[in-house]
Amino acid sequence: MHHHAYRFVAGMLILPIALYAVFVVSPNVQAVLLSFTDWSGYSDTQSFVGVANYTELFGDDTFWTALRNNAVLLLVLPLVTIGVALLLAYLLTVGGARRGAVGTAVRGAALYRAVYFFPYLLSIAVIAVLWQQAYNPRGGLVPKTLGAVGIDPPADGLLGSPDTALLAVIAVAVWHAVGFYVVLFCAGLDAIPRSVFEAAAIDGAGRLTVFFRVALPLLWDNVQVAFVYLGIIALDFFAVVNIMTPHPETTGGATEVIAHYLFTTAFSGDANPRYGYASAIGVVLFFLTLTLAATLLRVTRRERVEY
Questions:
Q1: Opening angle at CA 160, ends 159 and 166, nearest 5
Q2: What is the C-alpha to C-alpha distance for residues 256 and 54, in angstroms, rounded to an integer?
Q3: What does pTM read for this prediction?
Q4: What is the maximal distance between C-alpha atoms in the chain?
Q5: pLDDT for residue 100 is more than 50
């Protein structure tokens, strides 16, 4: 009987495993192999160059600039997005507490969640185009707003200044993503029994104490997933940069990221595209992402809190 069950399971797994091997494993293996060649992407011939691409890459100033920008994204994007999302979710779900109604949601919480979540429903390409126009130094909404409150934006616009370009792009990413995590954290907080918050209130705990000592520990699994997911987004971050600042070199590489550098190396339209070198960048990015995910899962791991 067990043998029949094993054969059935194996038979059901053959097709998905085969598809995964063809469309996921195979392209990654090919990328690794191409990273050891000088293939241009269009030539029928390719020569094995060993680790020359990797040696050149680690001496490439543009690569290190992109890596530095990705590091800033890794530090800022998850912390700000999760921090804002946790605050909003806590206020919506538990912040409506009144006398005799401890741990209740605010009025209209469902509407607020829908409003916060709406930007996430839009394509990131649409979001990038809209905010590119909003940042336009010639009549854009953001420069007008800054001017109205007495702040003079850079002459070249927030996206054209090396000092503000990266922060302006990060702000768009946070605005786009925060609604999803508000809904995620609200769902986690809704699953916590109200009696837990009532008991904390009876013991005299204030709202900050309830948040850090009750809500956050019980919500930590959701926060851990958010850190990993946002960390991967921070290492990629191609679409927003490519649309909003397609030429990072005009700001001294202020918004250059590894994924965008990979793209421009392989598809820059120059007479000498470098697919082999771009593959080496992709392999490094793959291992950086893998290392990041494993590290975040280990660092953020805590004992599960039961209630």
A1: 45
A2: 19
A3: 0.87
A4: 78
A5: no
Tokens representing 275?
A: 């697919």
Residue with tokens 């971050």: 237
What is the Cα Rg of the chain in Å? 24
Structure tokens at 103: 């741990």
Say whether pLDDT at 132 is over 70. yes
CB-hemisphere CA count at 13 Å for 8?
Answer: 5
* Segment 165-194, tens digit of pLDDT: 999 999 999 999 999 999 999 988 888 887
Q: Nearest to residue 99, comparing CAs of 215, 202, 210, 195?
A: 202
Determine phi and psi for 196, rounding to 5 degrees.
Answer: -65, -45
Q: Which residues, in sequence order, are CB contacts of 241 under 8 Å at separation 6+?
A: 169, 248, 255, 256, 257, 259, 260
